[in-house]
Amino acid sequence: MPVRRSAPTSQDVARLAGVSQSTVSYVLTGSRPISPATRQRVEEAIEKLGYHPNSGARSLRSRRSGVIGLMVPEAYGNDAVLMRFVGAIAREAQRFGYDILLVTAQEGARGIHRVVRTGVCEALILMELGRHDERVAAVVEAGLPFVLIGKPVGFPNGSVVDLDFERLGRMVVDRAADEGCERLLLFGEPGHRRHRNDVSRFLLGIEEQAQSTGLEVVLDAGDLPDVPARARELAQGGRRTAVFGLNGVTEVLFATAASGALEDRGLLMLALTDEDLAAISPLLARTPRIDPRRVEISELAVRELVRLLREEGASPRVTLVEPEWVGQTGGEHTSNPTG
Length: 339
Fold this sequence. Notes:
Layout: H1 10-17, H2 21-29, H3 36-49, H4 55-59, E1 67-72, H5 79-95, E2 99-104, H6 108-118, E3 123-127, H7 134-142, E4 146-149, E5 159-163, H8 165-178, E6 183-187, H9 197-213, E7 216-219, H10 227-234, E8 241-245, H11 249-259, E9 267-269, E10 271-272, H12 277-280, E11 289-291, H13 294-310, E12 318-321, E13 324-325, E14 332-335
Parallel strand pairs: 1-2, 1-3, 3-4, 4-5, 5-12, 6-7, 6-8, 8-9, 10-11
Antiparallel strand pairs: 11-13, 12-14
């Protein structure tokens, strides 16, 4: 019985033509300027392989639906943080006349293919990318304009809007060192979450800056309510300890306040949150906090996608928004394009 060969994909075309998968997508959709020589290599590879691109994705170039697909992560931990992103994206999209279709990240690349087949969405926003995320290849192959909130490893040319997590790591280390801390306790199992692009970039900034300051970094993997007790143990012997985490922040803050650890001079709590801590509890009013600028990032992601959709010859770019200590100045920097 003859073996049935699977249909060629854009990855096969890219491999044969010696170009990136995104370049194949740009040749097919006409969404980016491509040199004649490169275009010829891609077209010859398409003909040789007998590749048939996704017609639904191509048709969206001329048929506007007014719908943006938003692939959100599976809710875990703090749903309020996720909803802050979703709410800000939906409001900003409406301002430009677009509706949002939610797709869950559990569907992975299959979810991308399913959405493209329906022909409903004319563009995509993907949240919470892994360091190596299968959805990236799927969205590139779809041929739709897209923006990632998150910056995976080996990312092809495409638009990214995200917090500068490496900068965040350096800021935390510098603040801890300036406050006379010898140790930094990072809660929320960061060592087990390196597969996430945000955690891996954050830890890179932490580790590089800690080397230059001599700060000892402890990656905590224990239960969040017990973080204050473990931090106090580390601070024994006069070794002042800073405490920080990317997730579980509110839970740890409440546990710290309830245990009386906020009054412990051997501890320095540093909070990553866009909430007014004094409004949550007067006990937290003096806790130094970094604003992750989630609403701004959400709005920038929508505006970047609108730029790709409406601006003739728009090139992808990476925009990393700097976190900022509340009450201090911050900013953002844009590179075009970079990885």
